[in-house]
Specification:
5 strands; Rossmann fold; Four Helix Bundle (Hemerythrin (Met), subunit A); 62% helix; 245 residues; 2 domains; five-stranded parallel β-sheet
């Protein structure tokens, strides 16, 4: 566990420890919070869709309070907005800011995953985004014994997966329809995922200009097409090194 991952993401660990007393108690509570968040997000959406403002506000309050106890002060402000909207039966705010709430919850999950980042390989999900089924099949065959693998055939699917799932690493093709790889990299950069989500670029364009542009983002490695099993092993090592440092 690397406490710097928390502090780099503006988690106020010092404040949290004044409540929990020691890292062991804090870590246990952090895990419990992490594991509870997907169900809580699902319940918030259910309450939103059924116009159950009372339970929506109560649950948003609970998520907010726990976030503050664990040092997620900035995120707690997002949950406070939804707590007040629930109490005020303000559906405009709830609907208008629900994506922000969802993204915030998934950001917390990703930060905690990165902090604990030493679980079983079978519990680690790698997202592979490429518009070529041949590439997707080749990579999935190589990874499936060690990781959960999910696939995206374009940038829109990749972004949606990042928003709703806890992703351990992303293998990202640059040349995809709809939203391309560079636009996905911009999304990752602008939404606070860069410090917690290691990205490996997949590209058939090994020009100096493309590679140089790719490394202006926080990526861990590049897979140049065509690549081999040993090339995939190399980037998996780079991903594991990301979590160590």
């Amino acid at each position: 566990m690397n406490k710097e991952i928390l502090t780099k993401n503006n988690v106020d660990v010092a404040s949290a420890l004044s409540l929990w007393g020691d890292m062991e108690s804090y870590n246990e509570s952090l895990k419990e919070y992490h594991d509870s968040l997907p169900e809580k997000l699902s319940n918030l959406e259910k309450y939103k869709n059924s116009y159950d403002f009372d339970n929506y506000g109560i649950l948003a309050h609970s998520i907010k309070s726990e976030a503050k106890y664990l040092g997620f002060m900035n995120e707690a402000e997002v949950f406070l907005t939804h707590e007040m909207a629930g109490k005020g039966k303000d559906m405009v705010t709830i609907n208008g800011k629900f994506q922000e709430l969802s993204d915030t919850i998934h950001r917390i999950i990703a930060i905690i995953d990165a902090y604990f980042g030493n679980g079983n390989g079978a519990n680690k999900t790698i997202l592979v985004a490429d518009d070529s089924n041949i590439m997707l099949n080749f990579i999935e065959q190589h990874l499936k014994d060690k990781y959960n693998v999910i696939r995206a055939s374009n940038g829109t699917e990749a972004i949606n997966a990042i928003k709703v799932q806890s992703i351990y690493a992303l293998l990202l093709d640059l040349n995809m329809p709809n939203i391309n790889g560079f636009e996905v990299l911009e999304f990752i950069k602008n939404n606070g995922y860069s410090e917690t989500l290691p990205v490996v670029i997949i590209t058939g364009d090994d020009s100096e200009e493309t590679i140089k542009k790719a490394f202006t983002y926080q990526i861990v490695d590049v897979l140049n097409k065509p690549f081999t099993d040993s090339n995939i092993e190399r980037v998996l090592v780079a991903i594991e090194e990301f979590y160590k440092h």
